[in-house]
Amino acid sequence: MRAPQTIKQEFLKKWILGLQLCDFAKQNMSMLERKKAIKLSADIAIASTRNGMTCWSRALVAKASRDYGDKVLVERMLASESEKLKKVSSIGLIAPNKWVIIRSKKILRKSRRARRVRSSVPLSVLAKSIAKKMVKKRTQVLKSLVPGGEFMDDISLIEETLDYIISLRAQVDVMQTLAKATELLNGK
Amino acid sequence: MELPTGPGHRSSPMRPQSEDTVFDSLQFGEDIQHLISVPPENASSFTALLELPPNQAVELLHSPDSTLRTRTVIETHHQKPYLQPQFNAANLAFPTNSGLIERAARLSVFAGENLNNISNNSLETSSGPSNSSANLEKVVKSEPAEAESDLNPSQPLVSDPTTVEIGAQNQRPVKRKEREKKGKSSTKKSKSSGNDNSEDAEKLPYVHVRARRGQATDSHSLAERARREKINARMKLLQELVPGCNKISGTALVLDEIINHVQSLQRQVEFLSMRLAAVNPRIDFNLDSTLAAEGGSLMDSNFPSMVMPLTWPEVQVNGNRQNYQQQWHFDAVNQPVWGREEDSYNFITPENSLLSYDSSANSASLHSNQLKMEL
Q1: Where is the composition biased (Basic residues) (chain B) (predicted)?
Q2: Residues A125 and A163 in one domain
Q3: B5: Cβ–Cβ under 8 A, 6 or more apart, which residues?
Q4: Count of domains in chain A?
């Protein structure tokens, strides 16, 4: 039972540690690069508060270390973290056979769509199938939103979404307060 | 109440003399005294217990041996077999004594035999108590069927909607099984045992599902129903978490709201990181023991003091900026957190030595960027 306060505190600590590791001394850093570094350290910080227990945190770390040009930075940030996160950042997230399964599911789905079946079904069954399709579509969208969502089944997807929303809220709150504070101070 | 595997495990009794004393009631008390006096914390004594014939073991179990914690199981079994409003980890809510057997198997040293064997055996033995308590079941059946299914899943979850540990969520589904054929039930149990093996030792490795009145009882639809109920329970949690979802009915629309919420949060993170990148030409954090020291207290109360040591470079203030800052100040006063800012402002300026400050040319260009980027 973690209170939101502890999440925010941990996140702030780790984020600031990460920001210190980012080398902002380089003169050639444009604003976009700075923004990338800030976002990267924030993402890794919020993922490490979960300590590798949740799927989205591992996926987030893997994505961050893949997208960011400099993997050394990521590894330095995770220097004090659990072994799982370090492993995730260095290897990939998912074993290759999972990708095969996902690809084959996509092929099946496309072939199913290609079939044109004009069957006269009763209205109730039709309504149910339409509802199912709607839910299915939205589940797909949610899977694309939550990091690492494509590899989860429905039940764990909902659990991960819950966790992810809580962590995102904490992240947004802390970043907002920090942004306000810096703007306030800068105004002085 | 019998331990079904009692006689089968006396292959290597700890004390051979006990076999003779089994039928001798005079020495019975001595044995009990001896066993109780042995410190019962370790599993080996529990092993000794299980090697005794069943009636002796039951007697010992009923004895005030609190470390075994089985007494609470038996008591709850007698008193409240079905409705357990508090789901306590130490208080097994399982109506059958198969829970006891499971725990015995787990705790014992000689757990070389399969848990499956025990569970299968317990199935057959549970038919005995279940028949006797079948009338109780009919009484419970009169209650709305949803009450029990909702009670168990939602009870430990609703109590803490904001922070949910994923492991804790899987502790719930314990509903009463009501089946004639035990062959099908064992296959169902072994099928869902894989899901629950990772949970803590208090939990049985299978799910009891009640077949409601007028509904199909084959294993497929039962499994589907269990899955659907799991999904619905978690969706309810999500509904409570996301603001504005309470009134919406229907999974698709709720999912819409959830997706919108997640997207807006992610966009907020992007914009905030852009804001932070724009504000500072260069950030040099002087992070020291202050953060570590303040780890224990609430963030709200400490955030200003945490932020103050992190000094920011001073930027040239033009007229625009000052008005803006004053507006900010008034806004900030509304929040109780920022009330302390006024005190700590005095401490900031001496700390300029910690700053690493860019040349004014850089800051001016940044300033113009910032003004363009008014969010």
Answers
A1: 173-191
A2: no
A3: B50, B113, B118, B121
A4: 2
